[in-house]
TrEMBL record:
<comment type="function">
    <text>Catalyzes the conversion of 4-hydroxy-tetrahydrodipicolinate (HTPA) to tetrahydrodipicolinate.</text>
</comment>
<feature type="binding site">
    <location>
        <position position="31"/>
    </location>
    <ligand>
        <name>NAD(+)</name>
    </ligand>
</feature>
<feature type="binding site">
    <location>
        <begin position="100"/>
        <end position="103"/>
    </location>
    <ligand>
        <name>NAD(+)</name>
    </ligand>
</feature>
<feature type="binding site">
    <location>
        <begin position="145"/>
        <end position="146"/>
    </location>
    <ligand>
        <name>(S)-2,3,4,5-tetrahydrodipicolinate</name>
    </ligand>
</feature>
<dbReference type="Pfam" id="PF05173">
    <property type="entry name" value="DapB_C"/>
</dbReference>
<feature type="active site" description="Proton donor">
    <location>
        <position position="139"/>
    </location>
</feature>
<feature type="binding site">
    <location>
        <begin position="75"/>
        <end position="77"/>
    </location>
    <ligand>
        <name>NAD(+)</name>
    </ligand>
</feature>
<feature type="binding site">
    <location>
        <position position="136"/>
    </location>
    <ligand>
        <name>(S)-2,3,4,5-tetrahydrodipicolinate</name>
    </ligand>
</feature>
<dbReference type="Pfam" id="PF01113">
    <property type="entry name" value="DapB_N"/>
</dbReference>
<dbReference type="InterPro" id="IPR023940">
    <property type="entry name" value="DHDPR_bac"/>
</dbReference>
<keyword id="KW-0520">NAD</keyword>
<comment type="subunit">
    <text>Homotetramer.</text>
</comment>
<comment type="similarity">
    <text>Belongs to the DapB family.</text>
</comment>
<protein>
    <recommendedName>
        <fullName>4-hydroxy-tetrahydrodipicolinate reductase</fullName>
        <ecNumber>1.17.1.8</ecNumber>
    </recommendedName>
</protein>
<comment type="pathway">
    <text>Amino-acid biosynthesis; L-lysine biosynthesis via DAP pathway; (S)-tetrahydrodipicolinate from L-aspartate: step 4/4.</text>
</comment>
<keyword id="KW-0028">Amino-acid biosynthesis</keyword>
<dbReference type="InterPro" id="IPR000846">
    <property type="entry name" value="DapB_N"/>
</dbReference>
């Protein structure tokens, strides 16, 4: 595949490494410095774009790819309030987009089990649930996209919780979740690549379900595999659709 990399920071550079290892070619690298000078003809001969840029850049980058009829994999988080609008545009303009809050295999297994666990706990109202995410101090968005996906999985199964609220440790704003709100607690610590925990607590015990990324490699390899998976497909896809845990 001929790949355009949108974003060449911690993730973009690692994705380039995995792409080359898997026999692909990186034909263009776009970052904040050169983004404004990119023309349609610079990207229209590529096979796919992979966007790991910033929450503010992602929507513009998606539009650029759609104008060039270039399929796009979006790993950037922090733009999900526009998800439904982007879905409609993708479908009505016959484009190809795959997005995911987390491309690692481990987290996609986690997403699957998270829903099963939530369903199993639901009848037992003595358990309260909360989500905790820990990331490095450079992260621009909170809560993490992964934590939002986890929270949505829980909200789909646990009747007691109707919506999520976010509290960022050290932000100076105290957030107290109401009984029908699912608390997502965000912590920012040094260079942590990404740790997510779901906690079910009752008066007599606690269940902790946790995923710890030891590096960014799982995310980067997953993004390249997602780009391969998207080849020849039209439509709006989530990374979870690449996995079939039921067969
Ligand atoms: N879905 C997943 O599995 C994962 C998602 N992420 C998400 O990916 C995103 C990137 O993460 P990370 O690599 O750590 O972040 P970095 O800050 O390390 O890199 C961001 C890159 O985006 C570039 N950039 C800024 N503006 C634009 C623009 N308009 N167009 C193209 N590129 C631009 C920056 O350029 P410059 O250096 O010139 O400023 C930089 O190269 C985040 O949203 C993060 O949450 C991260 C890991 C896994
Ligand atoms: O910004 C990061 O680093 C990460 N972002 C993603 C998210 O917001 O969930 C995925 C991963 O946890 C790392």
């Amino acid at each position: 595949m001929k790949i355009v990399l949108l974003g060449y920071g911690k993730m973009g550079q690692l994705i380039e490494r995995f792409a080359l290892k898997r026999g692909h070619e990186v034909v263009l690298i776009v970052d904040e410095q050169n983004r404004d000078s990119i023309e349609l003809e610079d990207i229209e001969d590529a096979d796919v774009a992979i966007d790991f840029s910033t929450p503010h850049a992602a929507l513009d980058n998606i539009s650029l790819c759609f104008e060039a009829n270039l399929p796009i994999v979006v790993g950037t988080t922090g733009w999900y309030e526009n998800l439904e609008e982007v879905k409609q545009i993708t479908l009505s303009s016959d484009q190809s987009l795959l997005y995911g809050s987390n491309f690692s295999i481990g987290v996609n297994v986690f997403f699957h089990i998270n829903k099963m666990l939530a369903k199993a706990i639901n009848p037992y109202k003595q358990y309260d649930v909360q989500v905790e995410e820990i990331h490095h101090i450079h992260k621009l968005d909170a809560p993490s996209g992964t934590a939002i996906t986890i929270a949505e999985g829980i909200l789909g199964e646990v009747d007691q919780k109707k919506s999520w609220v976010n509290s960022v440790e050290g932000s100076g704003e105290e957030v107290i979740a109401k009984p029908d709100e699912l608390l997502i607690e965000s912590l920012r610590i040094e260079e942590v690549p990404g740790t997510h925990t779901v906690l079910y607590s009752s008066e007599v015990d606690q269940i902790e379900f946790k995923h710890t990324a030891h590096s960014r490699e799982g995310f980067a390899l997953g993004a390249v595999i997602a780009a391969e998976w998207l080849q020849g497909k039209k439509g709006f896809f989530q990374v979870t659709e690449m996995f079939d845990f039921n067969s």
